[in-house]
Write a structure and sequence with these properties.
3-stranded antiparallel sheet, Anaphase-promoting complex subunit 4 WD40 domain-containing protein, 4% helix, WD40_repeat_dom_sf, WD40/YVTN_repeat-like_dom_sf, mRNA 3'-UTR binding, 7 strands, Gemin-5, mainly beta
Length: 99
Amino acid sequence: MTHTTDKLVSMQQLTQKIHRKVTCVVWHPDNENIMAFGTQEGRVGFFDLEDKSGVPKVMSHFFTNEIYKLQWAPIKDESYALFTTSEGKLVYWNIETPQ
């Protein structure tokens, strides 16, 4: 970074709820404060850097295998969903209503 920022992020807070290695990361295409991640244990979640709690939102656990890739894709009403595939399944999450 070439400029200063007043947004500090605690690494301890960011790693809450993440129990295994993070295997992929993808930034939201329109909102630079949102970053999604996949883990070695098959979990998917996201961070909203503007969320005061600093705790990641972890989605329902659908997979037992490692997540290698996540992809944001547009859906209706100009919002985005987060997609991944594993174990022969395609799953998507709407981060505005995480479960």
